[in-house]
Amino acid sequence: MKKIFMFLAVMGLMTFTAQYAFAQDGDSLTTAESTEQVAFEPVAAAATEEAPAEAPMHQEIKRLFIEGGAGFMATIIACLVFGLAVAIERIIYLNLASTNTEKLLKKVEDALNNGGVEAAKDVCRNTRGPVASIFYQGLLRYDKGVEEVEKSITSYGSVQMGLLEGGLSWITLFIAVAPMLGFMGTVIGMIQAFDEIQRAGDISPTLVAGGMKVALITTVGGLIVAIILQILYNYLIAKVDGIVLSMEDASISLVDMIVKYQNK
Length: 264
Prior knowledge:
By secondary structure, the chain is an all-alpha fold. It has one domain. It is 87% helix and 0% strand. The protein has ten helices and no strands. The chain has helices spanning 2-40, 42-47, 57-68, 70-97, 101-115, 117-125, 130-140, 146-164, 168-200, 205-262. The protein starts with a helix and ends with a helix.
């Protein structure tokens, strides 16, 4: 599943880059056509001049992306795309891993009382999720005593916890890298502004404003990406904690259930 989401993320990034290149070509053609029209009809354009309409949201985003610099903005967008791909994959995995532990415990207890350990194993085999897998590993060691069951549950629970937390480190990486790239764009924008001032030999508000605008756009882009991924990361952490808590609670109930079954 991870490979599928990473492939989709790469395809989405390539599509976005292609649309960006096409948009730049379209903007250049539109600019050339508008220049020709102004050259032929300067008086008519001045007579019919009206207040410019507000540009659509996607046009504003495209304009800010171009003004912020394709290099840095593309890397920031790449962090967002790959971070979202990992986050969506984790959300689907964790939702599939969620189990109604009370219902599962009831099924296992009924199977244990009516059909024995093998019937309880069949119930665990036919139920998806880490809780059922932990139950199955514990029931496999039933003949070796309660202590071995507890050790098996503890060991396999650690394995399942690692699987639940898999991929989250990549999201934290993108959360850290995106604002860093934005701040790097800020520094480079400031350097470009001072280079323009040095070449011009004069402090012009236009030169300073251009460099500052590029710097601020990259910073805002990096912060927006980090905020989006941080929200998803906190949701995933809360989801993992809830599953782990239910695993621990259900494991204790399973051990008690086995002890009760042995004492019959």
